[in-house]
Design a protein that fits this description.
The structure is a homodimer of 347-residue chains.
Chain A (H helix, E strand, L loop, with lengths): L6 H8 L3 H9 L6 H14 L5 H6 L6 E6 L5 H16 L3 E6 L4 H13 L4 E4 L7 H8 L4 E4 L9 E5 L1 H14 L5 E5 L5 H16 L7 E5 L5 H12 L7 E4 L2 H13 L9 E6 L2 H4 L6 E4 L2 H17 L10 E4 L2 E3 L16
Parallel strand pairs in A: 1-2, 1-3, 3-4, 4-5, 5-11, 6-7, 6-8, 8-9, 9-10
Antiparallel strand pairs in A: 10-12
Helix pairs in contact in A: 1-2, 1-3, 5-13, 6-7, 8-9, 10-11
Chain B binds a DNA duplex (30 and 30 nucleotides) through helix 2 and helix 4.
Chain lengths: 347, 347
DNA sequence: AGAAATCATGTAGACCGTTACATCATCGAG
DNA sequence: CTCGATGATGTAACGGTCTACATGATTTCT
């Protein structure tokens, strides 16, 4: 069982001093080509690998960053992760994925794990608005980028989508198709994203000079397919059915679609349906789903790049927080098309 | 701008020595309750957090482990990650997710990143059979668990599914429904998993005393929805259509289903369809998809636990590699039901 | 009772593998 | 002979863990 081989061993093997080996890595041009080669050979011979652990301890920025999401089962989060992973990979970094599963306690636990590891920084899609873990991280001076939190906070970098506009787009689309009885199937009302989308719906009504009563809201505890099925069950129990349903999320919409289908209600003929996020699944559903697209991969990538810039700049003091707000986009598909003017099946 | 606070600061604040603070963490019962409390208070007051970096450098096992998958876009891999993440969380560890994107070079790059970081260990779903990165890791003595590689190697821990059985189950199911002209839409033929499923198909034929010609194979470069659409296009160009299609993967099956539908071919009436993996999406498809279920989350969790056990045992020398092989299971849904005996729509 | 052994607490100091910085040779040019 | 370059060396951090040892109080033995 051989001992771990360190820089000293390499130095001895190459017949130079410790510092020279370090220089070969960090200031190659300060070392004469001959010595450099000798050191290189020693490194290969011994199969030496630098210890990041020691480098970080010495003050170098870590090459690991983290992304904390609230639901790994949600394709939107997955897309965020993919985007971030891709950007990180380009910069030679690795990504730690933390699933808070919507539990603020888990989020906090992960936060302390990350702080203890002195990682490069974190992308965080906060679970609750209180932002306990965020303040914990900020206290530890860990670089942070907040993702998918629409509230305009000037005290941190963030990447988000204009959810008010998103809600407006969806609603306006349905209004334009003639719907005057729209149900907004919302997620937990405490989430700022949900509130924003709801405000967007109202704005659409105002723009169209229609009464606020044209949209009613139905809150759900979770934003999953199952929750969508439950919501649909509640819809079916209503005295008068809405003519259109706008869901806060494509998973909810998928659940609603399934349950309505089972009840023999046709989409879009009987009820028009619009989702949110435009996850990949949406286009391939039984009835291709109209949805408000949020560019998740792009968001992940932008957030990661923001963090990388932030932590690469030589002078971290003069850093100003940047807020990126992306525009959502309505993707019309069959689930909301007016009878007789079907959108072709091909996505 | 305050200086980072370390153990010495805590010690000074509590009026004890450095070692005592360390003992409060590592051997709490060696220090008197009074002192312990005093130290605790100092820690809280100063907002001190231990540096994992320093601990690892001193020889403590890291609290980060990694999982390397070949395609983050594949729900099967996501499920693996979810399982591993859950298990890791229970053990207080964090998971680093690395997407090799099917590129052995990336896999190797990640491998060295992981080694440099001296992480706890790695779960790896290898991209190519050569296993370059695996040998790199093994040379560095990093604990390893191979996931989803069916080849029986006694030189590493592994968690896999019996893919031969999986291929047999799917084929036998179709044979039992009377199909005698089955097409196996395979992935890259070099992948051992694909080879195993193919062998399974042959075994099913042998068991049923049918000629090997009852199953033909169609290779695809990738295993994505798009590849599935392309495969379907090729199928449509055949002189005589098969009566059943068995896809190496649910993504392929989804693509095939879409393309066949567009061509006006009904599933299962005209062609029966069976997928593999049983991703969540499969049950919710337009035509619920029959599939061979692989318990991905369980695999991820088991692999993670294997790794945790391995790295927690006091005596790492007397460790014997364990190979876990799980049984796949056929989940019959409408896409393969015989006309007239429909499985109910509800998944 | 006095010496010795036991015990609970703390302390001191040597690492772990790097990096940064100050120092020190060496040598040709002016 | 002094000056600058240039290249290599030595060493002090970084923030912990851990072993060995000092301290004093309490118990045990003779």
């Amino acid at each position: 069982m051989k001992q771990r081989v360190g820089m000293i061993d390499v130095a001895r093997e190459a017949g130079v001093s410790l510092g020279t080996v370090s220089n070969v890595y960090n200031q190659p041009d300060r070392v004469s080509p001959a010595t450099r080669l000798r050191v290189q050979r020693a490194i290969d011979r011994l199969g030496y690998v630098r210890s990041e652990t020691a480098r970080v301890l010495r003050g170098r920025p870590s090459r690991i960053m983290a992304i904390v999401v609230h639901d790994l089962a949600n394709p939107f989060c997955i897309a965020l992760v993919q985007g971030a992973e891709q950007a990180a990979r380009r910069a030679g970094l690795g990504i730690m994925v933390c699933n808070s599963a919507g539990d603020p306690a888990e989020e906090t636990r992960y936060a302390s794990l990350l702080i203890e590891h002195r990682i490069r920084g974190a992308l965080i899609a906060p679970t609750d608005s209180s932002g306990q873990s965020i303040t914990a991280m900020r206290r530890s001076e860990m670089p942070l980028v907040v993702v998918d939190d629409s509230r305009p906070g000037r005290d941190a970098c963030s990447v988000a989508v204009d959810d008010v506009l998103g809600g407006e787009l969806a609603t306006a689309h349905l209004l334009a198709a003639g719907h005057r009885s729209i149900l907004f199937v919302a997620g937990p009302a405490r989430l700022p994203q949900i509130q924003a989308r709801s405000r967007g719906a109202l704005r659409a009504l105002a723009r169209a000079r229609l009464p606020a009563s044209a949209v009613t809201q139905l809150d759900c505890e979770k934003m999953t397919v199952t929750a969508g099925r439950d919501a649909a069950a509640r819809i079916l129990g209503m005295r008068t059915l809405p003519t259109a349903v706008f869901c806060a999320n494509d998973l909810l919409a998928t659940g609603v679609l399934q349950r309505l289908f089972e009840a023999g209600i046709r989409v879009p003929e009987d009820i028009a349906l619009v989702g949110y996020d435009d996850i990949e699944h949406a286009a391939a559903a039984a009835v291709p789903l109209t949805s408000v697209r949020r560019p998740a991969r792009l968001m992940g990538a932008q957030a990661a790049n923001l963090l990388i810039d932030k932590t690469s700049s030589a002078s971290p003091v003069e850093h100003t927080h940047r807020q990126v707000v992306l525009r959502p986009e309505l993707v019309a598909r069959r689930s909301s098309s007016r009878p007789g003017m079907h959108v072709p099946a091909r996505p």
